[in-house]
Amino acid sequence: MIATILPLIGRRLALSVLILLIVSILLFCVLRLLPVDPAAMSLPPTATLAEIEEKRREMGLHLPLPHQYVIWLGDALRGDFGISILFRRDVLGLIAETLPATIELAVLAMIIATVLGIAGGLLLFHVRGSYAEAPADVGSIMLLSLPEFLWALFFIFLFGAELNWLPFTGRLDSEFSDPGGSGFLLIDSLVAGRLDIFRSALEHLILPSFALGIGFAPPIMRVLRSSLIDTYQEDYIHLARLRGLSEGRILVRHALKNAILPTLSLMGVQFGFLFGGTLLVEVIFSYPGLGNLMVDAVRNADLPIIQAVGLAYCVMVLVINTVVDSLYLVLNPKLRTR
């Protein structure tokens, strides 16, 4: 099986590299069309026209656009994404500091969305044909119509401001400091044996991750319910009933593993959108991740950060889709023959 799957995964990785290259070209060209002069912004307000022109030549902005891109691509392949205009620091270092926070938030939100989506889909399927079907269906549509930022505001108001159960700003309580290491607070705190820091980091993650997870769970619920309904029309389900298998065993051993395949495809798309959705949620919760870095960069027209963060989001979405595609290949033998 592995020998069959690896070439297919290799082709998907090659396609991902091509997509990343196209995205980098589009980002580079679009950002260069903005009415912003990176050379002037990187100098003090008192800089003369001669100094600005000299800086433009130093940054290669006087060269044709394709030539500029080739130079930028060569630097990027060496890990040099330039210096931030706002922070006056290496862009790659800034991303390395903020990306772990966003990954922690996105992974926890994905877990929540998966658990709620599958559990909700099974519940919707279970109540089909009963009096509870209509209320459950209406409830899932209501959940589907509420975006993640509304959940974020609701959670802040209820659990943060009114009940004061959970914190809703930052990554840690003020009395704690980052234990250092990989940048993933949950992992670093456990490695350091600091359960108090682990608890604080987890408490700060609960509200934003649930806001994201609940916002992306309803489509998973509805697709899984529809897939199960279609699967239960197959002949092998009827044969399983004739063999005397219980409904629970039919669901777990036969129906669910086939109905989960289209749901898995949707989850790949949803999780890609979920990672992009962290930007707005991070801003609402003042969460110091990649999204907040991007917002600060946009406010200050910091082109090196905007381009690098845009590519970082693209890479993470491609990684998520590649992982989901790999799982799909493992679960669906029909695709391995292609």
UniProtKB/TrEMBL annotation:
GO terms for cellular component: plasma membrane. It is a multi-pass membrane protein. GO terms for biological process: transmembrane transport. It is found in: Cell membrane. Residues 99-324 form the ABC transmembrane type-1 domain. The chain crosses the membrane at residues 12-34, 105-127, 139-161, 205-224, 259-285, 305-331. The keyword ATP-binding does not apply. The keyword Cell membrane applies. Gene3D superfamilies: MetI-like (1.10.3720.10). Keywords: Cell membrane, Membrane, Transmembrane, Transmembrane helix, Transport. It holds the Pfam family BPD_transp_1_N. Belongs to the binding-protein-dependent transport system permease family. This is Peptide/nickel transport system permease protein.
